[in-house]
């Protein structure tokens, strides 16, 4: 499954595509919401490693507006629950991820993103 | 089970095409049978994962059927599986009966934002790459994937030196160069029941044999590969203690052999 936790780590790796190659933009997606076990310790520790702007922008594009534009200084339970939902409960099943720079489309099928490029497409 | 004979081989094609033919295509064919035999995690991998701090996120590069993905300590750590075989990933996607994050990708390609992970494991993967340069690039991909400050890496590869419990028969004879390892084809036997539909021979033979390419590592070869990879990224090899300011490096914490495999554990460090 592609969830936003994974999407927050992926970047385009096509040849000469080194700037503005993150975050990939979801396109024509089919979503499924599936409950996942809430683990507040993990989320607290993971929080500083998130590329926040990319996460919020992507969540908005998928129709989830529960996260604040700026990462809050005070982390409360409601915030952690919203973050949990955005990171772990939105599953992208079909569609694609498009590089904002070179426009390469990485397809997603049955919840598995295809990040393969031919050798000549690689930097 | 009778021991399986391993045959020496010469990589006679472009290495990428060779891997496509002799690794990726084979795993896609044997995926479901292979998965049913690969469920027992190796203790050193389990130990490595058990010692990571809570909240760490990692890459399992060459996850196969995802047998290490459930070792996430009930969600205290997170792991994303990458593999080149779509059919293995279909197993990995549900490893341990839970939805897992998996990516169809190549261990040689860096499809991540830089240093996105806290840790990475590469278990029984790099030995499927068909020349020394590609194996070195795969190690560099791991070094680039993890945090330059605290990233930890565990790499496992198949060894020429097999233990006595191994079911395989290894061709004897000297390696062409000292410490250069050996290129081999390892058979995988699919019985009729486990063959994918339509792959049985018309004669109705009981078994289909598929050969997978491996590079069997010689003693010392993995450590040298890591050193070469790190040097190519301008990293200092050794401990962080006593290094000068604004330096970056990687320490080889363990370099050892266990049960027919060589493994190394690496830790990245940087001094501001």
UniProtKB/TrEMBL annotation, chain A:
- Which residues are the signal sequence here? none
- PANTHER family recorded for this chain? MULTIFUNCTIONAL METHYLTRANSFERASE SUBUNIT TRM112-LIKE PROTEIN (PTHR12773:SF0), UPF0315 PROTEIN-RELATED (PTHR12773)
Pfam families given for it? Trm112p (PF03966)
Query: Assembly and partners?
Result: Interacts with TRM9.
Q: Name one GO molecular function term.
A: protein heterodimerization activity
For the biological process aspect of GO, one term held by this record is: rRNA (guanine-N7)-methylation
What name does the UniProt record give this protein?
Trm112
Q: What species was this sequence derived from? A: Macrolepiota fuliginosa MF-IS2
From TrEMBL, chain B:
Domain Methyltransferase type: start-end pairs: 59-136
Please tell me whether the keyword Methyltransferase is annotated for this protein: yes
Protein's name according to its UniProt entry: Methyltransferase type 11 domain-containing protein
Q: Which organism is this entry from?
A: Macrolepiota fuliginosa MF-IS2
UniProt-listed Pfam families: Methyltransf_11 (PF08241)
- CDD domains, per the entry: AdoMet_MTases (cd02440)
According to the UniProt entry, the coiled-coil residues are none
Q: Which UniProt keywords apply?
A: Methyltransferase, Transferase
The UniProt entry, under InterPro entries, shows: AlkB_tRNA_MeTrf/Diox, Methyltransf_11, SAM-dependent_MTases_sf
Gene Ontology biological process terms from the UniProt entry? tRNA methylation; tRNA wobble uridine modification
Gene Ontology molecular function: any one: S-adenosylmethionine-dependent methyltransferase activity
User: Which Gene Ontology CC terms are recorded?
Assistant: cytoplasm; nucleus
């Amino acid at each position: 499954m592609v969830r936003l936790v994974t999407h927050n780590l992926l970047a385009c790796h096509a040849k000469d595509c080194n700037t503005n190659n993150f975050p990939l933009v979801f396109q024509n997606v089919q979503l499924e919401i599936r409950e996942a076990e809430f683990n507040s310790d993990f989320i607290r520790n993971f929080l500083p490693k998130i590329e926040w702007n990319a996460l919020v922008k992507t969540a908005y594009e998928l129709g989830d507006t529960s996260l604040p534009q700026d990462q809050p200084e005070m982390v409360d339970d409601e915030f952690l629950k919203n973050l949990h939902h955005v990171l772990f409960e939105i599953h992208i099943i079909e569609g694609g991820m498009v590089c904002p720079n070179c426009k390469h489309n990485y397809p997603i099928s049955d919840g598995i993103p295809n990040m393969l490029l031919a050798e000549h497409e690689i930097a | 089970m009778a021991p399986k004979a391993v045959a020496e081989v010469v990589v006679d094609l472009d290495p990428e095409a060779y891997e496509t033919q002799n690794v990726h295509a084979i795993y896609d064919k044997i995926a479901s049978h292979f998965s049913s035999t690969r469920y027992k995690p190796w203790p050193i991998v389990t130990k490595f994962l058990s010692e990571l701090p809570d909240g760490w996120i990692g890459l399992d590069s060459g996850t196969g059927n995802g047998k290490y993905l459930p070792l996430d300590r009930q969600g205290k750590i997170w792991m994303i599986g990458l593999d080149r075989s779509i059919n293995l990933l279909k197993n990995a996607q549900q490893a341990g009966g839970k939805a897992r994050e998996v990516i169809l990708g190549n261990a040689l390609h860096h499809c991540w934002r830089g240093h996105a992970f806290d840790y990475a494991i590469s278990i029984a993967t790099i030995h499927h790459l068909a020349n020394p340069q590609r194996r070195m690039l795969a190690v560099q991909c791991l070094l680039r994937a993890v945090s330059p400050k605290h990233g930890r890496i565990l790499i496992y590869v198949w060894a020429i030196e097999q233990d006595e419990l191994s079911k395989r028969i290894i061709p004897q004879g000297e390696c062409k160069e000292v410490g250069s390892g050996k290129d081999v084809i390892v058979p995988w036997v699919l019985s009729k029941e486990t063959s994918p539909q339509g792959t049985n021979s018309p004669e109705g033979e009981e078994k289909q044999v598929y050969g997978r390419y491996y590079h069997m590592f010689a003693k010392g070869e993995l450590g040298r590969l890591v050193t070469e990879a790190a040097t190519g990224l301008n990293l200092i090899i050794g401990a962080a203690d006593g290094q000068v300011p604004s330096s970056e490096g990687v320490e080889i914490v363990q370099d050892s052999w266990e049960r027919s495999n060589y493994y190394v554990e690496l830790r990245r460090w940087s001094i501001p």
